[in-house]
Design brief:
single chain; alpha/beta; five-stranded parallel beta sheet
Length: 549
């Protein structure tokens, strides 16, 4: 069969191998062009001038089409084809001059007038279309989120996802919508309804952010700001010397007609109390609901932030609640996962643990019913005691179910800010974070976790890239389609898991089960018991000294 197909390609290579795949039909175009050229002297017999005119139009039209699609595989062939069309037009207009024949003037005058008025009409149409496009730019963005990518890419991404899934409004963030930096400031001036500055520590130190703020004030747009805990307003001296505040004296903005004086004036107006402020640093919501509250505040929605807690979550998402970018990543993944749960689990819900702090004490019960756990690693994860204990318990419980039909994989997901730990972390940093009685357990579970391939979630990338990474996460989750359990079965499974965990805790506490030490950590079996100071014990100790969950 392969030999037959190869022979067909060899026989008809003059059809398949001359043109690019997108111009596979160009052989028919060449045949049609030859036919039309032959028909012109047959249709118009007694008027040589009209024949020359029509042939010239046809040669130019086919030459323009060939230059547009560039059908030939060899680039030199495209150049030669266009050049031959030019020579053919030159020959076409030189031959009548050399022959000295006389042409019928009446039809040529009519065609000349049509050509003149056609050029004038085309010019006017182009002018009117340009005015209409300038006055009514498309697409129209109801909300423009100006931000510093390194510090707030995930937060604005999650806010855009919230707005997109709950409304029909169009939101601009540069990762998705910016294609040409030269058109950025023009977009702000002509295609934006509400301009929002997401203020983090370095937002007003970024050249392009400052240019966007200036363009928004020049266009007199509606403006709001979102203040995070890391933002410190610039002083009067810093506003007066914006070139030093930004960190570059020869600013890139000068080529767009924006001076440092204009930047300083715009920043001063931005800090004015008249500009509405959404204070994320004063928000009383917890977890990802903080960003839901921000989105609703920006759009002046008064409804309640957050959603109802899922009763039987099939997917648990854990991250450090002290890291805003990690929280936003968890919220974004929760939205994406809920949208695709039916294809993986046959239904169900995802639960983001930071949204419900009271559920940390029930982590063992939740994982007993779950079919997957996502651990989001950021730069704050490995320094947070509560998160480290959650990770250790998740790995331990996952290992105990690894060889069963009820597997619950733990999938590591790391952000751009996360740096994988080395031996110095386990020798110097981890002992200062984890109590001595839990150190060996947490250390071993972390090392087990980092032997698994982590999924990179680049929050500053486009939606297409992030969707591909979310798909990679889905591929690592076990399917439950057609295998859902009843509530009684789930309850029994949960009680069995909790009983096993409590039994392990008691045996370790009584000294009947020993923990491994020293160099044996790497050589031990993957299954491991939960120590007595697990997450619930730890939280009880924190509550005793007045720490909130």
């Amino acid at each position: 069969a392969f030999e037959a197909r190869r022979n067909v390609l060899l026989k008809y290579r003059f059809l398949f191998f001359r043109f690019h795949p997108h111009a596979y039909f160009y052989g028919l175009v060449l045949i049609f062009r030859s036919l039309v050229f032959c028909l012109v002297p047959i249709v118009i017999r007694d008027d040589p001038g009209m024949q020359v005119f029509l042939l010239g139009i046809l040669v130019v039209a086919f030459g323009e089409y060939q230059s547009y699609i560039k059908p030939w595989r060899a680039e030199i062939c495209n150049i030669i084809d266009a050049f031959l069309s030019l020579l053919l037009v030159s020959l076409l207009f030189c031959a009548p001059l050399a022959a000295g024949f006389t042409a019928n003037q009446a039809p040529l005058k009519v065609l000349g007038m049509i050509a003149i008025f056609g050029m004038i009409g085309t010019g006017l149409a182009i002018f009117l279309v340009a005015i209409i496009k300038f006055c009514r730019r498309t697409p129209w963005y109801h909300l423009f989120l100006c931000h510093h990518k390194e510090q707030a890419a995930g937060q604005v991404r999650y806010i855009k996802s919230i707005v997109s899934t709950t409304t029909t409004l169009n939101v601009f963030i540069d990762s998705d919508n910016l294609l040409n930096l030269d058109k950025l400031f023009d977009t702000v001036k002509t295609q934006v309804g509400l301009f929002c500055v997401y203020l983090t520590a370095q937002t007003l130190m970024r050249t392009w952010c400052c240019g966007e703020v200036v363009s928004a004030f020049v266009a007199k747009l509606r403006m709001k700001t979102v203040r995070t805990a890391s933002f410190v307003p610039p002083t009067h001296d810093q506003i007066a010397n914006m070139d030093f505040y930004i960190g570059q004296q020869d600013s890139t903005l000068s080529q767009y007609g924006i001076t440092m004086a204009a930047v300083g004036e715009a920043v001063k107006m931005l800090m004015d109390p008249a500009v509405p402020v959404v204070r994320l640093d004063h928000c009383t919501e917890v977890g990802c609901n903080r960003f839901v509250w921000v989105a609703r505040s920006l759009l002046d929605f008064k409804s309640r932030a957050g959603n109802s807690k899922p009763s039987h979550p099939q997917l648990l998402i854990c991250t450090c609640p002290a890291d805003e970018e990690a929280l936003a990543a968890a919220g974004y993944l929760t939205l994406k996962m809920i949208g695709g749960m039916s294809g993986v689990f046959g239904g169900g819900d995802a639960l983001c643990l930071p949204d419900y702090p009271e559920e940390y004490v029930n982590f063992t019960e939740l994982m007993a019913e779950a079919r997957g756990v996502l651990i989001i690693f950021s730069n704050a994860t490995l320094k947070n005691r509560k998160e480290l204990m959650i990770i250790a318990d998740a790995i331990s419980l996952s290992n105990s179910r690894a060889d069963t039909t009820d597997a619950c994989p733990v999938i590591p997901v790391h952000l751009n800010s996360f740096g994988f730990p080395n031996e110095s972390y386990f020798k110097e940093v981890l002992p200062a974070v984890i109590p001595q009685e839990d150190f060996r357990y947490v250390s071993r579970m972390l090392k087990t976790c980092f032997k698994r391939i982590s999924v990179h979630l680049p929050l500053s990338a486009s939606e297409e890239v992030l969707s591909a990474q979310v798909t990679a996460i889905f591929h690592r989750l076990p399917s439950m389609v057609g295998a859902t359990s009843s509530g009684h079965e789930q309850s029994g499974k949960s009680q069995s898991m909790v009983g096993k965990a409590n039994s392990h805790k008691k045996s370790v506490h009584d000294g009947t089960t020993s923990c491994s030490t020293g160099e044996d950590l790497e050589a031990q079996d993957s299954s491991f018991v939960i120590p007595p100071s697990s997450i619930d014990t730890m939280l009880q100790q924190e509550n005793a000294v007045g720490m909130s969950v």
